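To illustrate the input format used throughout this study, we show a single complete record. The first block contains the structure-token representation of the backbone; no residue identities are included at this stage. The design step must infer an amino acid for every position from geometry alone.
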């Protein structure tokens, strides 16, 4: 059973998937830092607000005995929009990678086979034989 598991785990496809998963996780971190550090501040300049802090208060909450507000409820749409931008960037890059791989696969396809039928040599031999008969 252990031998079968080792064979399964070392198959090329499974290893490729694991490498792709790790690379995807690392790429997600790069995209998140790009969105959080570059895209969000630029959008914040346009809208004159910090993009991640865009939110709407749904419930005011209550004051407790210490004078602190408890039970506030916020709709944090800025964080959601940042994650949507992250997703769009990752999806676009993955689309480009898959497109490049598909283009490479097309180039690796073997050349089409020669059409079946007599070759030039065979045709010339037939013509010679017909001429000899006459």
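Output of the design step:
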């Amino acid at each position: 059973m252990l031998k079968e598991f080792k064979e399964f785990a070392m198959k090329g496809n499974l290893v490729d998937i694991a490498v792709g998963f790790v690379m995807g996780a690392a790429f997600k971190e790069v995209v998140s830092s790009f969105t959080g550090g570059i895209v969000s501040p630029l959008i914040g300049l346009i809208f004159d607000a910090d993009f991640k802090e865009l939110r709407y208060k749904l419930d005011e909450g209550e004051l407790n005995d210490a004078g602190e507000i408890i039970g506030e409820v916020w709709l944090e749409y800025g964080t959601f929009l940042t994650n949507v931008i992250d997703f769009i960037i990752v999806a676009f890059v993955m689309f480009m990678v898959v497109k490049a791989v598909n283009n490479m696969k097309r180039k690796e396809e073997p050349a089409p086979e020669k059409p079946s039928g007599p070759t030039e040599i065979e045709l010339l031999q037939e013509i010679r034989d017909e001429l000899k008969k006459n």
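Structural context for interpreting the output: The longest strand covers residues 56-59. The chain has one domain: 2-108.
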